[in-house]
Design brief:
Tumour Suppressor Smad4, mainly beta
Length: 129
Amino acid sequence: MSLVVVTGAKLMCTFGTTPATFNATGTPSIMAGGKPVGTITDGAGMVNITSCGMCSSLANPAVAAATAAALGVLTPQPCVPVTTGTWLPNGTMVLAGNKPCLTQESKCICSYGGTISVVTPGQTTVLTT
């Protein structure tokens, strides 16, 4: 069983330096622990997923340019998540607004090569099956 992810959850990217905050927008009327529940469609960068601090992926054009300007010394730049689509669900059949709920095992892929995962789901009582 997994915990449902809600607004305020903490996320982390493999190329980020600090946790991002999750903001559910797809089903604002469905709550868990008094907070809106996320669905797999809540994956937009800077809308649903805030910045993960500094990005160190060379696939990020800003990081590549800064690193080239520093003669090859990796130079992280501010993270602006550019997700490739929806969250990848863990197989849960629990729906919110006819969409699979986002759970603590779900992953989201950034176009710059990072994998965004849930560090803390934002609540501790509502489980999926």
